[in-house]
Amino acid sequence: MAAPRKSSDARHAKIDELRREERRRERRRRIVYSTAAGLILAGVVAGGIWVVTSASDGGSETRGSPIAGVQTFGAPGRAHVETPVAYPQTPPVGGDHNPLWLNCNGDVYTKPVPNENAVHSLEHGAVWITYNDKASPADVAALAAKVQGKPYTFMSPYPTEQGTITLTAWSTQLVVDSANDPRVDAFLTSYVQGPQTPEPGAPCTGGLTQ
Predict the structure, then answer these.
(1) How far is CA 206 from CA 4, 17, 179, in A?
(2) For residue 67, which of 166, 188, 183, 175 has the smallest C-alpha distance?
(3) pLDDT of 128 higher than 90
(4) What H or E segment, with its residue span, contains residue 175?
(5) Is the pLDDT at 83 greater than 90, yes or no?
């Protein structure tokens, strides 16, 4: 009877350690951002140079031309919870999530994965590719080839999604009918560790595995 208790204790200990590590990363990130902001401000004041950046209305212009069909959503919450979350999008594009992320280092999952862990991976800058039973075996194989070995990507079946294939990043989503759609590669190029990422550089290994 002691084994389940030990397993539960070990899991909670791991989650506690992950939380402490995330807090340490957040403190380091704030220091780096504050230092960078101060240097930028000093350069602007000294040189009298103002840099103006612009973004597209739809938010789909990231590292190149806008990608047709990309949807962006308002900034979702980011709290850590250990209970199920009712997400407004299917698959979810962000929101409160489990403290433990899903491994997203080119991982190809053959069974559905927990939303709450997958959303944590999106927060780290991963792109999640999902598909339903309308996707052909050739499509699934082609998608797996795009994911395997590519850091900050992962894929899994998602039987309840409406679109045949869905690509999801934090607050961003694209639905396509075929793995051969050129927008698949464009989305990966634009949104893997893209500017939408709340926690760029956070790990995609050492998390939950299926």
Answers:
(1) 22, 12, 29
(2) 183
(3) yes
(4) strand 172-176
(5) yes
Beta-bridge mates of residue 127: 153
Residues 6+ apart with CB under 8 A from 200: 125, 193
Query: For residue 37, how many other CB atoms are within 10 A of its CB?
Result: 10
- What's the average model confidence in pLDDT over 14-38? 57
Parallel/antiparallel/unpaired status of strands 153-157 and 165-169: unpaired
The SS3 assignment for 125 reads coil
Give the tokens for residue 194: 């893209």
**Nearest 5°: phi and psi at 101?**
-80, 165
For 41, half-sphere exposure in the C-beta direction (CA atoms, 13 angstrom radius) is 6
Q: What is the pTM of this model?
A: 0.72
| Bond preceding residue 137 cis, omega within 30 of 0 | no
Secondary structure in 3-state letters for 25-78: HHHHHHHHHHHHHHHHHHHHHHHCCCCCCCCCCCCCCCCCCCCCCCEECCCCCC
Contact 56, 64 (CB under 8 A): no
CA distance 70 to 129: 14
